[in-house]
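worker-03 picked up job from queue 'complexes'. Input manifest follows; six sequence lines, order preserved.
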Amino acid sequence: MSTVYSPFVAELKEKMDFEGAFLVKIIQLHVDKNGRPYLNLILMDRTGEIEARVWDNASKLAEEVRAQDLLRVAGKVNLYQGRRQVIVEAAAKLPEGSAPLDRFVPASSYDVNRLYADLHALFSTLEDPFAKRLALNTLEDPEVKKKILRAPAAKSVHHAFAGGLIEHTLSVCRILDKLAHHYRHYYGKAVSRDLLLIGGLFHDIGKIFELSFERATEYSKEGQLIGHHVLGCELVDRIAGKIEGFPLELKLHAKHLILAHHGKLEYGSPKVPLTIEALIVHYVDDLDSKVNMVLEFIAEDVQPGEWTAVNRMMERPFLKTKVKPEVVGPSPGVET
Amino acid sequence: MSTVYSPFVAELKEKMDFEGAFLVKIIQLHVDKNGRPYLNLILMDRTGEIEARVWDNASKLAEEVRAQDLLRVAGKVNLYQGRRQVIVEAAAKLPEGSAPLDRFVPASSYDVNRLYADLHALFSTLEDPFAKRLALNTLEDPEVKKKILRAPAAKSVHHAFAGGLIEHTLSVCRILDKLAHHYRHYYGKAVSRDLLLIGGLFHDIGKIFELSFERATEYSKEGQLIGHHVLGCELVDRIAGKIEGFPLELKLHAKHLILAHHGKLEYGSPKVPLTIEALIVHYVDDLDSKVNMVLEFIAEDVQPGEWTAVNRMMERPFLKTKVKPEVVGPSPGVET
Amino acid sequence: MSTVYSPFVAELKEKMDFEGAFLVKIIQLHVDKNGRPYLNLILMDRTGEIEARVWDNASKLAEEVRAQDLLRVAGKVNLYQGRRQVIVEAAAKLPEGSAPLDRFVPASSYDVNRLYADLHALFSTLEDPFAKRLALNTLEDPEVKKKILRAPAAKSVHHAFAGGLIEHTLSVCRILDKLAHHYRHYYGKAVSRDLLLIGGLFHDIGKIFELSFERATEYSKEGQLIGHHVLGCELVDRIAGKIEGFPLELKLHAKHLILAHHGKLEYGSPKVPLTIEALIVHYVDDLDSKVNMVLEFIAEDVQPGEWTAVNRMMERPFLKTKVKPEVVGPSPGVET
Amino acid sequence: MSTVYSPFVAELKEKMDFEGAFLVKIIQLHVDKNGRPYLNLILMDRTGEIEARVWDNASKLAEEVRAQDLLRVAGKVNLYQGRRQVIVEAAAKLPEGSAPLDRFVPASSYDVNRLYADLHALFSTLEDPFAKRLALNTLEDPEVKKKILRAPAAKSVHHAFAGGLIEHTLSVCRILDKLAHHYRHYYGKAVSRDLLLIGGLFHDIGKIFELSFERATEYSKEGQLIGHHVLGCELVDRIAGKIEGFPLELKLHAKHLILAHHGKLEYGSPKVPLTIEALIVHYVDDLDSKVNMVLEFIAEDVQPGEWTAVNRMMERPFLKTKVKPEVVGPSPGVET
Amino acid sequence: MSTVYSPFVAELKEKMDFEGAFLVKIIQLHVDKNGRPYLNLILMDRTGEIEARVWDNASKLAEEVRAQDLLRVAGKVNLYQGRRQVIVEAAAKLPEGSAPLDRFVPASSYDVNRLYADLHALFSTLEDPFAKRLALNTLEDPEVKKKILRAPAAKSVHHAFAGGLIEHTLSVCRILDKLAHHYRHYYGKAVSRDLLLIGGLFHDIGKIFELSFERATEYSKEGQLIGHHVLGCELVDRIAGKIEGFPLELKLHAKHLILAHHGKLEYGSPKVPLTIEALIVHYVDDLDSKVNMVLEFIAEDVQPGEWTAVNRMMERPFLKTKVKPEVVGPSPGVET
Amino acid sequence: MSTVYSPFVAELKEKMDFEGAFLVKIIQLHVDKNGRPYLNLILMDRTGEIEARVWDNASKLAEEVRAQDLLRVAGKVNLYQGRRQVIVEAAAKLPEGSAPLDRFVPASSYDVNRLYADLHALFSTLEDPFAKRLALNTLEDPEVKKKILRAPAAKSVHHAFAGGLIEHTLSVCRILDKLAHHYRHYYGKAVSRDLLLIGGLFHDIGKIFELSFERATEYSKEGQLIGHHVLGCELVDRIAGKIEGFPLELKLHAKHLILAHHGKLEYGSPKVPLTIEALIVHYVDDLDSKVNMVLEFIAEDVQPGEWTAVNRMMERPFLKTKVKPEVVGPSPGVET
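worker-03 finished. Artifact:
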């Protein structure tokens, strides 16, 4: 069988010979019962993860390579206990920068710059000048902008890929916009579109500090000890503190929208929703996360038949959709 | 002070003298400590309820009048332990039909025939011919149509007024329609608009049998023993049973959408959502009920200051909206 | 060591050579690290399950054999990580019908026809003619009869074997009969024996549609999406619909007995018991299921000492009974 | 209207003049807004409780009469806020012993001596000599016997009347006896009839120390601080300690049956059932308490219509039984 | 009976004539059934609250007096439905400042300036210079100092009086100091005394902003929408922001100690304790609040007998202590 | 590499050759796929546990050696799936008593006789003569003394080593002593130091009967069926029964302190704390157990970085302490 060059993880098939570059997620040295050392690796790129085993030069490689390094690998794919496993025939560490990082980290299927532009455009339509300034200054803040173009929306569970946060944020904001329009027909101006959208933008923004996501996504120390609810409030304080005359009332609303967005104390919100806008933002955040989680889960399921395996978060299997979830780019939800 | 004629309950103010007709919700005869009999009543019309006390001719009136009767009352309004109370000076039972019933039962602010027409129009746009037939045959079924034009969405809590069910149903369906459109940009045809809308129409339709709502809303016996989830499934069976070639698959989906719409077993759903459409219908039903409940609660709150009293369902007070909720008729959500 | 012919799974011992026929529950093809293909199987018959591994002709066999096929196997039993494992030396697919299916599926220890006759006799004693007709017509319905003679009471947990449903149903009905008699001495005719027995017969009957149990027991699609509570109600509707003059009141009671039998919403009942009979049926169903589950668990436990392993459903170990649970046939509970 | 002599509380009707003796449950002195003192009382006898008000000689009576005294009352019945209330015209404290106490405390409808004899006879049939001795010595212990002939099964909720404990105990034991017989046909001697019955007798016996029930039922101090689970175990220790050669194993079983009978930790059992007998005793205790509670609740309900008011313990209304619960004496469950 | 001058609420006894000044907590105008207006008031001072009724000049007084005003009252004490009630004979509003406010608001029994000095002295002993600066700068901040000398620890429940926060804070800090010393003998320097004390000082400090407590204690708007956890973190940011070189690590610890001090998400902490110090601070805060709550509850209980009434927070009665809780001033816990 | 003699389990490193004695915790015989028998063992000493595999003479050894035997082993340490595993080259059973048992069972780092002396001294300071007698007679009871010098405080979780119970008991008593002193300054003599210390000594003392701990710690049969709460009460009864004139009141308090020390019914306490002392004892027991558990968990964690692995009991990782927990002997908390 001839060798396949530069395959993605998702393309590796049983018995395939290949050569290519991968990100090392985990690396461990073991010794077999005859005293022979070998390496267990988990390799990843943006399409998935795969186990690998190295028998030759294992000790030497173990000294050179660390988790998060890039590795050039020549190998063959076997099935082991029902899972694919790479038997590595040759491997060498790649120097930093020898390949673009976005090949190795899973990413949004959309153009994140386009998502950013759409989000910016949406917030240019806010009525209240202070709410608009708060939103636009936040989006234009260099640190925020750099991070929001790469951040995932979660370590796992939903939108867990580079750009996932902005993809989720834009989707939530667009649904909130539709609901503002819808309920205006029912209850007049009682529900504030400005506050709904502020809630949409800021509810998860603390995640750009809660997670570290240069390569594999992890919680940062302040993420663990403080959490994205409070980190989001601190960002509001920082941005609003530089806007002269920023009204206290609006700052309280913005923070409450962030603090209450998980809906219940037991889900980590220190406050339950006490305003109609906080209540709606909570529902839409929950809905959009779950829809994404379930459809990704269905898309990736490999069970034969109509049912997926049991989803651990939701503690149930799902009936697969008739049409497989697919992506329509470049920016979703653009209504032209 | 001069007498006010035909006031609504909501218009009765302390010290006002008035004359008018009301529906008797509760009637009880008591004897005071001097052995003098008196009547305690709860009177209602579509704007609210008020306590009343009759001292003259109490025994005679007690023999003539029953709960759910109409009563002509002349009286005066006092404050008793912080609540308004009518001291009845003269009262006489009104013959059946002497006044239009809709004066006495709270009702949707919208034209229910217009809501019905909007709903019918929406379901004419379904793609799948069997789904469309199921929906339209249901709406056109004479018993269903008669009941759905009057049914409340609940005994209390949310949309608890004549026409409340169709108002809630149409609102849910319109939001589902928007979401179908929104997620098509993200996941292609994976989420079925037809199933979402079938879920919107049928999720609460069993309430037309679960509740009796000719005058004051009560649970029917089958409502208590069987519940609107199963009663809704029986309606699907009945309507679909008359459509030749109706696919079993679609019937299973329709029933699952009904059975799972409360989202969790502990909220009375015998099945948790196992399809993406059932999950979304659950969220939108919950969102729309809560938004209505909270905004009605804010609109009716009489507490001084920025905060409402504690809402018993949600176990919290709410911050009042800046703009009071108001209604924009005739059919909400019409986008022209 | 000489070869054992046609052993049951329960009889396979370490180091035994044997030849016999088994049902294939699961079949998977793998490749070892030298590129050599092998098969992992789970084989079953009515006495249990065992893992098996095929090294010779693995690929060819993988093409011929599917899950749920019958397989003739010659092999040897090893211990692997503390569990028995068959090393297959030769294997061949058996043609459909070459062996009676009941050898391969675990079954009630009782004569199901005798259980059926006992159940039928019990329901001939109902007083109310419509209740009696409902019960007997159901038992005599050809589809119901065929299925109820084979259905298990659950996929696992309790009475999880062919005939388990009718065994559990008869046991519950007999206990209910005793309780009707008992409480008549306390509360006169307040508790209806007819309703208790209707509850006993119908509470789990929806399981004949919720499960598919020709070979290994699985949930059917309507089982997953609708559930045995509602499927049981649909059966009541279907049978009662053909009995002229069937009283609505009795139909409501029958359905309520089914819907409420899990006792609490969080256990999947859409209604809590609201009648004294529904309350009693719930307790007896729960008691009989748990007694069966625990005694089977004790009977099958292989731990040394007085205590069983931890039962996962009940989250505790059990003290073993002094006398091991044993079966006394042909129909249990016959009092002569 | 002529005066009724010696009526029971249950017989007092609006506007009735009467004279009779009652137990004082609560007595409080107040002053009206004109400075005139009056007494509020709650009077009781075995048929129920009623509020009463004394205007004449209130201060003097307040000095003479205490809660738990007997009082001779002449008065008249009024309705006050929908409840009956006695206006006392004359009242005088009765000397201790001037009337038999059992007129004033609600009691079992059965002959408690007959219940005791039945229970004693049942335990004479135990097989294991030590189990039999433990049971009979307990029943024959003078302190236990005296108390068990009077104790209620609870302060309120179920069997809350003199003799309620022995009534409940006998009912539970008889059901357990039937189940022992029933399951012998299924599982042979795995379930021990002796242990089931020991569980039936002892599960609630600690209540004779947990409650004080000479007049109105209250918790004793040791009841509050220790509880009937542990008090029951202490009784087992005390009785078994006097039986030579009493096996430790049986003592452990007896205590475990007591400690585990509430079934779950959160219901006050420090141990969950770990033996098949403890599991069954828990179910039957729960069933018998609930059946008694619900049927008493239905029997006493005064709501018009088919439904009772909401039962606070069970958080639901109940559908009334077609036939009102009635009592068939002298000892229930005697099968002759 | 002669008139008592300037009594405290706690000293008002049935039938007493008195004259004195009180704070108006609630004021409501009603009309009796003869059309005569009257006022219902709740009067308070630092020893408690009492209901009052005004019949003369009620309307005029209603126009002049508002909640939170001071009122001079001459009246008499009656018992009404078992509770004391003042019948007001004459009343007049007092001008602002005509009496020292601390007569009317319940307060710590200790000298709050002494408590403050003790707290300040304790934090002068911290080892880490930044931790010491953070604590002392906070205590010395003019706004914080002014507020902390008056703030209660809660709106009700525990330490609900002026100075309650500093009393609770000092008690918690002293216990933490003892535990730091205790565990040093067990685990060496693993548990940081500095962090424990920082947690003790800051855990509840956000309450100075969460509550408004000039007269009667209420939640502020930022208290409702943001809560004392996050408000405490903002204070840390503000004070630490002015200390040059303040280490990020210490700021994270301080905030985590605040955010995690309720111990569980469902109690309003957005983070569970993840450091050993946060875990200990949580326990000690909980312990000290409960001890204060229970001992105050026992001290104020007026039930006859050994048991208190049921405590609503803890859902149980308590056995009264043999010795009544009493206060030993001026600063508690001073060990000299 | 040269051989290491008599290493502790904690000292075994990958690739090390060694010889030494260990306690056999688990022993199982298997056969590999070539029919070759081998042994899987878990070996332990007081520093930890390790897996071992024997290939030579496996069958013979399997016949001679049982769990809880001592074994002399010569072998080599490999890494297998990331865990250390001993490959046994030679092994022989050691005769009983050939090595001191305390080498093989993990133990308190303190001198248990010193802990015992400290505890005895502390209880000599009780004021109430009966409380003092109860405590000292218990400590001096030969069976209690023998067991308390060896018992662990739990099977796992916290203080799970020989002497763990007395270490935990002394720590709890000392903290209670400090709190008694602390709260005396706040509430006078309301909180009884005697009762606090009685609670500290007896709360867990039933564990000396609940656990069997000669070698590996297991639950005893009475531990499983009765539990340490009730076993502790039985000990109080036994010791107090021999003290003439022992007051009932004190016995009730002592038992309540034991029964309520888990704080909530769902944690196995049949009574919630109803006295102030029971409440405080519950908090301090919980605090001291958790502090020990978390610090031991941190001390043993081998994860790289600042965070431990997830603690299964607490369902969270912990931030490691800056200074590693270390022990300062001989008796902790001695303040000289």
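worker-03 released lock.
The mean pLDDT of chain B is 89.
Chain B touches chain D through eleven residues (CB under 8 Å).
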